[in-house]
Specification:
By secondary structure, the chain is mainly α. The chain folds into 3 domains: about 5-220 and about 275-445 and about 500-535, MFS general substrate transporter like domains (Growth Hormone, Chain: A, Up-down Bundle), CATH 1.20.1250.20; about 220-275; about 445-495, no CATH class. The protein has helices at about 5-10, 20-40, 45-55, 60, 65-75, 80-85, 90-110, 110-140, 145-175, 180, 185-200, 205-215, 220-240, 250-270, 285-315, 320-345, 350-370, 380-390, 395-405, 410-450, 460-475, 480-525, 530-535. Helix 7 runs antiparallel to helix 8 and helix 13 runs antiparallel to helix 14 (about 250-270).
Length: about 525
């Protein structure tokens, strides 16, 4: 073992590659990652078709997404513990198999209730995979090559949500919604075959598992119940809060109180438990704790922008689901180019400077996005999306670098679980807050714009007359023409208010990203010398 590897606590005995090329391992685990992240984004654009096919309302069909996210949120925090108990390779293959089988069942679902149940199974399988994948990469690659490995993995994590809406819209428009689930089957089968053939269960992990189970399997049932109740309730609140008017709804209020109470009891229980199901003490490590917080930010920006921009195109502009997906796709292509570059250059500076650079790039991109106008073109949106995502690789890779910096060897699975919790939790919070701001600011701007629509206003009076004359020339009676004129003015005001609300969201993201830059520079420690030197090779 090299001096640098010893210093960083890395040992080749924990590698999942065995005597094979470790890059083959990185490619293989990225296959299933792409499938899971793609499926998370692809179902959103097909809800209307699912609802019509299964005789359900649009509101009922949203449970297809909500239940998946809840199941994902419940299993993710405990996936590190499950991986250690079951065996990392075995647990990973169980998750891939469950996700693939439930995808088949989702495509064959005869009713909405059946589809929701199968989506829960799919969420349980999908939620357990990222933890094993990132732990495999952290243990397989030494620190000097870890950034490039996470860059390859990051392509799947970040590009899949960009491709999802386009692919989902195309499949739904040209085939049927069933195929958004069926496409997972061949990918899952290929992933299972390759994982079983190439990946090995390292002897060091087998030994650690035997030692931990020597005194019998001790299961922290209370911790599991509390974390499931916390994240399940929280995900429900975040997903349904805006639709149900937040705390004005007794249901949302009840689930919020349940989530808060369960979380407090969970903290007290886990911090005093001898064998906790989630090792919260990792969050008190300065480097890891900061990595957790910044990853929440990345999740909020990534998932929030992935939803907000296509939503903007389909509501304020006449874009179909497929066309809106095409508009954001250049961002994914830009990511394919930038991610490997970020992996190569990360070692040239301390990780905290790259994180600050990435946050600054995101802030500038979001500020540029506020130049939105009603006559914005397809290429404007494509350019905006490229600017929005081009800084994310310089966040994703350094965050994982500092997260595993100095982390004990036997804590990589638990650390990976918490980092993935941060990304998903940040994404849920980001989407929820963005949608709330959109509604509130749209109402605000509409009320301000309506203040000028009074009969005593010469401009308003002239506009009504011009529009009425237009409708009269189209053959409408004078009384009907005036009603049409008022209706058209109302639509214009609503559209302008909505556009201004989206601009406000971009402003908020820009300010938030910029405000984090000095915090990152002050709070994150320098990575130790040998590790940095290794990363530069």
């Amino acid at each position: 073992m090299s001096e640098q590897a010893q210093y960083r606590g890395w040992s080749p005995s924990r590698s999942a590659a065995g005597d094979r090329n470790p890059w083959l391992v990185a490619v293989i685990v990225s296959i299933a990652t792409f499938m899971v992240v793609l499926d998370t984004a692809i179902a959103n654009v097909s809800l209307r078709y699912i609802a019509g096919s299964l005789g359900a309302s649009i509101d009922e069909s949203t449970w297809v997404v909500t239940t998946y996210l809840i199941a994902n949120a419940v299993v993710l925090p405990v996936s590190g513990w499950l991986s250690n108990v079951i065996g990392r390779k075995r647990f990973y293959m169980i998750c891939v198999a469950l996700f693939t089988a439930s995808s088949l069942l989702c495509g064959l679902a005869p009713s909405l209730n059946a589809l929701i149940f199968f989506r829960i199974l799919q969420g349980l399988g999908g939620g357990g995979m990222p933890t094993s994948e990132q732990a495999i990469l952290a243990d397989t690659f030494p620190p000097q090559r870890r950034a490039q490995a996470f860059a390859l993995y990051g392509i799947a994590v970040i590009v899949a949500p960009t491709v999802g809406p386009t692919l989902g819209g195309w499949i739904t428009d040209n085939y049927s919604w069933h195929w958004i689930f069926f496409i997972n089957i061949p990918i899952g089968i290929v992933s299972l075959i390759l994982v079983n053939w190439v990946l090995v269960e390292p002897e060091a992990l087998k030994r650690e598992r035997r030692e931990s189970l020597a005194g019998g399997l001790r299961i922290d049932w209370m911790g599991f119940a509390l974390i499931a109740l916390t994240f399940g309730s929280l995900e429900f609140v975040l997903d349904r809060g805006q639709e149900d008017d937040w705390f004005k709804s007794n249901t949302i209020l009840a689930f919020s109180l349940i989530a808060a109470a369960a979380f407090v009891f969970f903290l007290l229980w886990e911090l005093t438990e001898r064998d906790p199901i989630v090792d919260l003490r990792l969050l008190f490590r300065r480097q890891f704790g900061m990595a957790f917080l910044i990853m929440m930010t990345v999740g909020a920006i990534l998932f929030g922008s992935n939803q907000i921009l296509p939503q903007l195109l389909q509501t304020s502009f006449p874009y179909t689901a497929e066309l809106s997906g095409l508009a954001v796709m250049p961002g994914g292509l830009a990511m394919l180019v930038v991610m490997p570059i970020a992996g190569q250059v990360t070692g040239l500076m301390q990780p905290k400077y790259w994180i600050a650079f990435g946050l600054g790039a995101v802030a500038l991109a979001m500020w540029y996005s506020t130049n939105l106008t009603p006559d914005a073109t397809f290429w404007y949106f494509a350019t905006v999306r490229i600017f929005q995502v081009i800084g994310l690789p310089f966040l994703f890779i350094p965050i994982n670098t500092i997260a595993y910096d100095g982390l004990p060897q036997n804590k990589t699975s638990e650390g990976s679980a918490l980092i993935n919790v941060a990304r998903n939790l940040g994404g849920s919070v980001g989407v929820s807050l963005a949608n709330t701001e959109l509604l509130r600011r749209s109402q605000f701007h509409q009320s301000r714009l309506v203040e000028n629509l009074v009969p005593s206003s010469p401009v308003f009076h002239s506009t009504v007359n011009q529009m009425s004359q237009y409708f009269i020339h189209q053959g409408a009676p004078p009384t009907t023409a005036q009603s049409h004129a008022y209706g058209l003015i109302g639509q214009l005001v609503s559209g302008q208010a909505s556009l201004l609300a989206y601009i406000d969201v971009f402003h908020t993201w820009a300010i938030f990203s910029a405000a984090l830059v000095p915090i990152v520079l002050l709070a994150i420690k320098r990575v130790s010398g040998p590790g940095r030197a290794a990363a530069a090779h």
